[in-house]
């Protein structure tokens, strides 16, 4: 859908430029945008490589495992159906830590692994039909989307790349916005979890 939307916008721009005699401007804009895109990709690739590497070092050194133990009360509250010693908890914890630091790129691999482990757990339990997401999987997905962030690294990098006078000015509003979204996400998940258990009891 997005491909069709962007394709249509580009086509409209080219047709409009040709109809108004501004094809030179359209060509210049295309070339300058391509150059800017490559420059941005190189900048972001360096940032991604650094932070993903840091997360891998933290995981290999056992730091993520220790933080997971510290987070067990919180994880137990959020995911009551998942055993606290289950491997999924480590990946969930790593994903939450990465998101907390604004490292969405580093969080994605941990998120995928967490989903795989949760799917394996539900397959062992046979508590949901194949192809159906469990409460824990839905909760994790919603929390991953809301993602409380302390340092929005990617947004700071974008602002710095485009010449912002104060790239870190986004930190305060970012914390407030993501804190609100995370609180709403937790409340929503708990309400839906309660309704799901109530319906299971009735059935």
Helix content: over 70%
Largest beta-sheet details: none
Domain module tally: 1
Question: Which percent band covers the strand fraction?
Answer: under 5%
The SS-based structural class is mainly alpha
How far is the first residue's CA from the last residue's CA? 39 Å
Shape call: globular
Number of helices: 9
Q: Write the element-wise H/E pattern from the N-terminal end onward.
A: HHHHHHHHH
The gyration radius over C-alpha positions equals 22 Å
Number of strands: 0
Name the average pLDDT: 80
- Flag low-confidence runs: none
Can you give me a brief rundown of this structure?
This protein is mainly alpha-helical and 203 residues long. Helices cover 79% and strands 0% of the residues. The chain is built from nine helices and no strands.
Report on this model:
The chain is 79% helix and 0% strand. The protein is mainly alpha-helical. It has one domain. The longest helix is centred in the first third of the chain and has 38 residues. The relative contact order is 0.08. The model has no long low-confidence stretch (mean pLDDT 80).
Layout of strands and helices, then pairs:
Layout: H1 2-19, H2 23-60, H3 63-70, H4 72-78, H5 87-100, H6 104-125, H7 135-146, H8 153-161, H9 171-202
